[in-house]
Specification:
single chain, mainly alpha
Length: 100
């Protein structure tokens, strides 16, 4: 499979805003997003930086982060109320097996 894209008429700033908001809501932090926009492997963000310049791109990303925030969560387990448990396992022979 090959992904092909092209240039479409529209607002580069609006595209950056939508892309930044989507990535921020997915958990990408503003610092990571800024770094991605400097990496040619992230072609859309890199192209936006080339089109808008460093200052405008950085400002747009920071404004998006201020507007929507970043979806983050942390999960942890506490063992403060840990109480050891005793497990007893027993078995009784199967009636069919006794006849063998």
């Amino acid at each position: 499979m090959v992904l092909e894209g092209g240039v479409a008429d529209g607002s580069t700033r609006l595209m950056l805003r939508m892309l930044a908001e989507d990535l921020l809501r997915s958990g990408v932090g503003p610092a990571d997003l800024l770094a991605m926009s400097r990496d040619p492997n992230y072609q859309a963000l890199y192209a936006v930086r080339a089109a808008l310049g460093d200052a405008d791109t950085d400002r747009q990303i920071r404004e998006a982060a201020d507007r929507v925030g970043v979806a983050r969560f942390r999960h942890w387990e506490e063992t403060a109320s840990f109480a050891p448990a005793t497990l007893t396992v027993s078995a009784r022979p199967d009636a069919a097996a006794e006849g063998d």
